Fold these 2 entries.
Entry 1:
Amino acid sequence: MADTIVEVKNLVKRYKELIALDNFNMKIEKGEVFGLLGPNGSGKTTTINCILSLLNFDNGEIDVFGEKMTSSRYDLKKRIGIVMQDVAVFDELNVEENIDYFCGLYINDKNKRKQYVDEAIAFVGLEDFRKFKPKKLSGGLLRRLNIACGIAHKPELIILDEPTVAVDPQSRNKILEGITELNKKGATIIYTSHYMEEVEQICTHILIMDKGKNVTEGTAEELKRSIKNTENIIVYIKNLDDAHVKAINNINHVYDVSYMSGRLEIKCAGGRHNISHVIDYFANNNLDYDRIYSELPTLNDVFLEITGKNLRDKE
Amino acid sequence: MFINVFKAQLKLGFRNKSNVFWTLMFPIILGTLFKITFGNIYSEYKSESIKTAVVFETDNEDVKSTTKAYLEGLEMDGHKMLDISYMDYDSAVALLKDDEQVNGIISVKDDGRLSLDINSNGVLSTIQETITTIYNQNVGLIEKVAAEHPENLPAVIQTISGRAEYINAHSLAGDNKDPFVSYFYNLLAMTALFAALNSVRIGNNCQANMSTLGARTNASPLSRMTFQAAGFFAAYIVQTAIIFVGLTYMLFGIKINFGGDIPLIYFTTALASFLGTALGFAIGNLGSFAIEKKESILVGITLTGCALSGLMYGDMKVIITEKAPIINKINPAAVISDSYYCLNMFGAGSRYFMTLMYMLILSAVLIALGLFMGRRNHYDSI
């Protein structure tokens, strides 16, 4: 039990008639980068707010660092860092002052805090922007400031709620490297994101939730193995008519075919030499294609297969 | 942690440009305009006694002696406000037609009321009109209260006597008798209440259901009470410092004579700022709606309060005393302007200290209200 950082048991949260969390369970072990995935409205942010004891819940238990979490457990809150989905900084304070302010909510010692602030600034690469007010920062720099404010006090548990939304690839890369670095230094991370490649890149354990429930969890590899899809064959071909699409769908082990804007995607379940069968079909029907390749399913395939392709309302 | 939050909130307050504008630039600009407008009027009217014909249209000796004492007793800066000649109505009209002789005719009626005849409009006529209007209002008010609510008569007479002394200028403190100084009292009251625009953010910044900053603060190990206290005192210091700058400009820049001891004027202003900060604190913790709406509510309360205490129309306070006296007790602007008025008119006596007590009580109620409404640590929805 000592190595369990967060344990959520049978959590139920209702917003009037809507059940946001439906007997939700989750266990996060020390040293994990825990990916919490789910469509909009699945309950990710609600779960985080309950863990932080910001939200009342109707039933269930939440333990953090092995102890019951309540709103007055300041000793537990002291060990947690939170990076909110929306940027939460003061417009009137500059980068350094903002980080110092939020660090000051956790660390009293002035010298220690100065050192922590300097380290946080270096960590997110804002050395050249120390005296900048938030309004002068770009979206990516602002996100990095938001992260620095949440982690400057060196928390043992860091919760990052979609920290890379609207961030350019360079800043995103910097942020992801930083999260891995924090994890290496001993922090346990809870990470929510809609970017599957990010989650696959940094998370050691992934939980997919939908409609307030824990649908599945495991490592990225375990999740991929758990789904029907074993191989995706991608073909770039122009002017393919519907009859061919239907025919390809009847090839052995193929269970789903989609064709859009000259890109044909063929999903296979099991079987060997699937790509050979597809190439044979094109050859037999005198169809010329530009490019063909095969790839293993991604976390995105796992996510879509488990949660479905229907559009969701925004959370 | 208190010190960290306190220091940061100080910086936030001083760097909040709109707040600094409303609480510093606005009173400086409006104060200067008041000075230009009222300064000219006042200097014109205080330099001479107004030639006035008084006609008695009654044989009632009590009425005669009361009105005579009132009209002859009106003084300003050591000279009589009215230069009175007693005569019959026809002689008075003849003199009125020649502006050099009299500026107006005040007739004393059987029912004790005064009527005014003037030949032309102007500052001096306006002053004569003010004198007769206030006298008649007071007579009417006393008659009405005596008939309907005799138990309130002492309180009404006290208010009226204050108003009469205001015009009469027989000040116990012996300082400024300028009737237009009340506009500056109300301007200071409004400035003090604008302090609320700074403290309104305190509640918003520590309630998880009101802002992301609130959620971040709530998720930290900082207790709600520590945050609220640090934010409140920082907002108070910021506002008091800003208002002191504005007050110093009025006192020594455009040389407004508020009457009373200058240290006590600053002390009154500091308490007024405390009341304004408390008002913002209460509104900031009121419900989970947007900060912009709360600011609108505050501006509405402040402007309405100032209007009711006479910022736009000087006699409004007398009307409120007549119609709904309780409003003057709970209207923060009226309570603040009363303090300045009492300090000027009666000095640092019991009436002045009573108004300070009102300010403190009102502040305590508002702070308690804010603490009660902002007591939650976790929420049903965010």
Note: The radius of gyration of chain B is 25 Å.
Entry 2:
Amino acid sequence: MRPTPDSAGALDLSGRSRRGLLSLFPSRTRGNLADQVYAVLVRSMGIVLPLLFGFIVLRIGVAAWPAIRSFGPAFVTSTDWNPVAREFGALPFIYGTVVSSFLALAIAVPLAVGLAIFLTELAPRWLAAPVAFATELLAAIPSVVYGLWGIFVLVPFLRSAVQEPLAATLGGAIPFFAGPAYGFSMMSGAVILSIMIVPFISAVTREVLTAVPRDQREAALALGATRWEMTWQVAIPYALPGILGGAILGLGRALGETVAITMVIGNRPDIARSILAPGYTMASVLANEFSEATGDLYLSALMEVALLLFGITILVNVIAQLLVWRVSLRGGR
Amino acid sequence: MYTDLERRPSFALAGTLIAVFLASGCWSSDSNAGSSESAAEDLGSVLTLTGAGATFPFPIYSRWFSIYSSTHPVRVNYQSVGSGGGIRQMIARTVDFGATDAPLTPEDLAQMPGTLSIPTVIGAVVLTYNLPEVTGTLRLDGPTIAAIFLGEVTSWRDPRIVALNPGVSLPERAILPIHRSDGSGTTYVFTDYLSAVSPDWTTRVGRGNAVQFPSGLGARGNEGVTGQVEQSPGGIGYVEQVYARQNNLPAAAVRNAIGEFVEPTIDAMTRAAEGLTERIPDNNDFRLSIVNAPSQGSYPIASWTYLLVSPQFAECRTAEALIDLIRWSLLEGEADATALGYTPIAMEIRVRELESLRVVTCGPDHRPVLDSGQLFNPPNR
């Protein structure tokens, strides 16, 4: 049963009945002391966070202003990043961030969803719990550890087992896989990001699959559906908005990931067509160059990169929210 | 209308925070006091000096400062945030001293006129490489290194490398140059050297903490460069010399200004700063480039790392403590520096640096901090 406005808490009513900011702080005419304290606390926090968000945007914007003024829109389209000559263009970083994150998503989503389906639909309980635990443990590994593992294990492996064969066979025909295979590349960055975001996506997917009502599944089976059909035609469509939500969570993390990808992507501000070539991301250039940046314009340019990263993250999230919203409307939930 | 009833929760919260803060503060001062007896005696008058800057000298600075704190009522809080951060904090006057690897630029100096640059130790940059086939030490010269990092020399069999290494059978491998992706004093020293020896490098790249490398891969930190070189046969990268020594990395011998191939030993680096006394101008501006020094046996890719000291302090107590700290570090700290793998600066230059601190004044009446009668004598050993 959905709560009607009348059945909502007395605090809520007293808060909403008056206008403006004042309504966020209820008078003490109703409710006991604990309720009052609670209401003031949570409402303050509700105000503080949006204020903090605004403050961060404002500060970064102010710091980025000299660069915005001196480079204009060329900052987003130029590929030249030369601190010595004081010329700054962010396109290679934007490209690297977006491409590496979406590549990572393309690798991680099938992996995470497949894992979640296995764990909720097929795996015996004695196996499901430890596997789920191990997956979630992946989220607890510090990213610098991922980075070091990337340098010493993943990159040599990818280079000799994947990238060199790819460059030698498909590289001539498909520019995506053109050599030389250095190892440190966009592909390595995407792979390490995908490993880092799998636990988030699979945890959310597992939750939403578990939440699919039992009678829906049983109805499908009763109509003669196989297990496969039941999963793909009933459970997955039902859980799709949640799965997309998990993917967004992962994408957000991939866009902002810094240390691990910096260590394996090769840090070259180039826009290369091949995913075997090195790249660079916005978060990486910030982490790399901020502490030693001298000169106001240089710092300001880095701040503008930060502002753009902020903007891209918000943009991607808004688009993804719209997507989730449409999917859940169509799903008729 | 708000009454104190509604404010009480925030008071309670603030009270809790203050209590936690005090508790942690007490705990940390207790633990610090326990570590040194003299500090515990004068707990009331312990002075804290704050500094920020370069990461390269951080190990030796923290060693110097902790030894100094154990015998003096001064605690030094040095944050190794990077040279750029150190310079910014000096300009903003949020620290008592700064530290930088690259010499202050005229623009930086214009924002904090009169700031003194005091060299402390010598840093050097070594070229480490991954050539499993080569057992001896690789030999390189400046123009060839520049050509490698410009992407012009792309094979280890290139005639220019072969000519420098007679009798060494070099493999037919592609060269993969690896540079620092993070802004770094190490990159400054390296590019300063390449700019000094290669006109091509000066016009196409230039010198700086972060530059636009025309080719190769970028790696974060000394450990990142080392890792990528180790994982890439044919790779070559530059790392800071203390780091290279501690990790026993192969290091190329580099041809110096008088044509000798010199390996990066402490002796070779000390020689890089020899014969510099004449080059220091009368105004005691120590911001000299010491790369490609013409002295015999000197390793060419070397540089000083600097402390930054303001010429005027508001608090005389702070100024006196800081200058005594610098005096102690420069005169008494040599053995610790050598033990950690740093190269000390020639004593005559260190004495001259201390003399240059006589211009520092403090207080509203701009009183000189150093007594004009005080002499700086090297410790007797």
Note: The longest strand of chain A covers residues 81-82.
